[in-house]
Write a structure and sequence with these properties.
The longest helix has 14 residues. The two termini are 27 Å apart. The protein is globular, with a radius of gyration of 20 Å. The protein folds into two domains: 53 residues, Electron transport complex subunit B, putative Fe-S cluster (3-methyladenine DNA Glycosylase II, Chain A, domain 3); 161 residues, TIM Barrel, CATH 3.20.20. With 225 residues, the chain is α/β, with parallel strands linked by helices. 39% of the residues lie in helices and 17% in strands. The protein has a five-stranded parallel sheet. It is built from eight helices and nine strands. Iron/sulfur cluster binds next to α2. The site of iron/sulfur cluster (SF4) has 13 residues, from α2.
Length: 225
Amino acid sequence: MALTGIQILKMLPKKNCGECGIPTCLAFAMKVAAGQTEIGECPYVSDEVKEQIGEASAPPIRTVKIGGGDHVYTIGGETCLFRHEKRFENPTGIAVLVGTDQDGAAVDGRLERFKSLRYERVGVMLQADMVAVKDATGDAAAFNALVKKVLETCEDAKLILISDNPETLAAAAKECGDRKPLLFGATGDNAEAFAKIGQDSGCPVGVKGGNLDDTVEISEKLQEA
Ligand code: SF4
């Protein structure tokens, strides 16, 4: 069961030093309980307490980071399922899709709109955060060239790389270096290969199941790996 802020506070060193970026231990404990920050942000908590609080306060969906350096998109990590119950800490991202089945002009147009489109909606600025690059033709060289183009044209874009071929994805993930794209999508047939690419590259991996049971099964395979 999730711990309350007061229960978490009892396990903190209570230095009120602010090194976690929050002025007091009480405020920090409340944020950990609400899933708005992680216990590891306090440098004075022992590994044992970290594990205890980390497990008890872990959200049902773990936090996943796509990207690297100054350009990271965070998803998951929510403690609630519905937006009306509570504010989402990591709102759903918006991505623009480009694929190897599109001609150069179409790709350029989409990348240009990725950079320029901004909508203000009830005080919130909406804009695309990610570019999804799809291997739609099975041509590894064309896919790699498209990934390279996106990396060069959209310097702050977080990437999603989509291909059924693990080898194609592994090469493209290497091209991305520390920009750590999301690799999509592992199926029952290639889960082992996807797990290996995820481990070697440090990139998050997405799962593509035919139905919910299938998706759970593939996810379990990846988790075991
Ligand atoms: S870094 Fe730790 S001890 Fe310091 S204020 Fe934050 S929670 Fe308290």
